[in-house]
Design goal:
By secondary structure, the chain is mainly α. It is built from 10 helices and 2 strands. Strands 1-2 form a two-stranded antiparallel ribbon. Strand 1 and strand 2 form a beta hairpin. Helix 1 runs antiparallel to helix 10, helix 2 runs antiparallel to helix 3 and helix 7 runs antiparallel to helix 8. The model has no long low-confidence stretch (mean pLDDT 91).
């Protein structure tokens, strides 16, 4: 049995989810992970600290769908488990939020260790290895950078030269796809589309 107390003695290290689950941040159990909680949370977490244009925030849920789309554009026949891993690559943020990279660098190892434990539990819950192979991580990171380039230039006020220096090249998605995925959706739409895509990919695994 795991404790609900942090090592320092503080009273609570868990979060109650809308599903009723209590997810322990120190020792997360895959049994306490529900995709409905993930979709709900990610659809309400803002990328870029909310510093994006549009009537709605650009949510982490929408970002993960964009990452998976970039990955499929590069390799249309890519394995379903890799697509699932791409959809879940930022899933811990349904609990800990989306901290921008400069702030993660300030926090250092403590943030990363919590994030890693959460992602491991999420992976196990949905049939993936707790830790992905380095090659899979590289492919997801490449797609993530491609998505970040598009978000930076279309929504976050970056010049193309600055985005290229920080994130690499434009992934070259069709204009209709870019218009769809780079128009910020409402939280309800992001949640629904994330769940729909997740269930479709999971059924192919």
């Amino acid at each position: 049995m795991t404790s609900d107390k942090a090592p320092s003695g503080h009273d609570r290290v868990w979060q109650r989810m809308l599903s009723g689950r209590r997810l322990n941040l120190i020792d997360p159990s895959p049994l306490d992970v529900e995709i409905a909680d993930i979709a709900h949370g990610l659809s309400r977490v803002a990328r870029w600290n909310g510093q994006t244009s549009g009537a709605h925030i650009f949510s982490v849920a929408q970002h993960t769908l964009l990452v998976e789309t970039v990955m499929r554009a590069k390799k249309p026949n890519i394995d379903a488990k890799l697509r699932l891993a791409a959809l879940l690559h930022d899933a811990p943020e349904y609990v800990i939020g989306d901290m921008i990279s400069p702030f993660k660098a300030v926090l250092g190892g403590s943030y990363k260790s919590v994030e890693k434990r959460l992602l491991g539990a999420i992976h196990i819950r949905f049939g993936l290895a707790a830790e992905l192979a380095p090659e899979i991580e590289r492919q997801i990171k490449a797609a993530d950078r491609g998505a970040a380039y598009l978000e930076a230039t279309r929504l976050a006020g970056f010049s193309e030269s600055e985005a290229k220096r920080l994130f690499g090249r434009d992934p070259g998605l069709p204009d209709t796809t870019v218009t769809d995925y780079l128009t910020p959706w409402s939280a309800a739409k992001a949640e629904k589309r994330f769940l729909t895509r997740f269930n479709l990919v999971l059924s192919s695994c």
